[in-house]
Amino acid sequence: MVFGVLMSSISRQCRLAMGAALSLAFVATATPVFADDIQDWQREIVKQIIKTHIYPRSAIAREIEGSAKVQVSIDRSGKILSFEITEPSGEDQLDKVIPKMMEKLDPLPAPPASLPDGNLTFVIPIAWRLQ
After folding, report:
1. Mind listing the pLDDT tens digit for each residue in 1-51?
2. What are phi and psi of 64, to 5 degrees?
3. Domains of the chain, with CATH numbers?
4. Which range is least confidently modeled, 29-43, 53-67, 68-82?
5. Alpha-carbon distances of 124 from 10, 25, 57, 113, 119, rounded to whole Å
6. pTM score
7. What does the radius of gyration of the chain's CA atoms come to, in whole angstroms?
8. Distance, CA of 86 to chain centre
9. How far apart are CA 77 and CA 109, in angstroms?
10. Could you give the CA distance from residue 11 to residue 119 in angstroms, rounded to a whole number?
11. Nearest residue to 108 via CA among 35, 48, 53, 54
12. At what angle are helices 32-52 and 98-105 packed, to 10 degrees?
């Protein structure tokens, strides 16, 4: 299941857009009630990602864009136990802010009880885009 959010804000003379998406694998037999719980949880995570997204000023000034993927493992309370950059952006200025973003994200919203323990590790794609 993949979903995305687009957020725009004004920063000096630039209009920035940040796309955040969260990929999670779910058991296909989940009931609609459980699916709603999971979708609500995902929405809360996306809101938090948007709030903590960092676009370095030096990257904006140089018009650097990119995307990366970060695998995150959490516990039942939402605390980030570990993260790994599985696909770096290839831009040092962007990749260096990922640990800061993960620190600001911690803790994530607690997952719903209906989410199996095996799904407490997921991938967060992060995008840095100028508009």
Report:
1. 232 332 323 233 233 333 344 344 333 334 454 788 889 999 999 999 999
2. -90, 130
3. 2-130 (3.30.1150)
4. 29-43
5. 24, 12, 22, 21, 13
6. 0.74
7. 15
8. 13
9. 7
10. 36
11. 48
12. 130
Query: Contact, 78 vs 110, CB < 8 A?
Result: yes
Tokens read off for 101: 């973003």
Residue type present at position 57: R
Burial 101-114 (b: 16+ CB within 10 A, else e): bbeebbebbebeeb
The answer to whether the beta carbons of residues 65 and 130 sit under 8 Å apart is: yes
**Tokens found for residue 90:** 């290839």
Lookup result for tokens 């952006």: 89
Mean pLDDT of 85-89: 98
Tallying the residues shown for the chain, one arrives at 131
pLDDT at position 119: 86
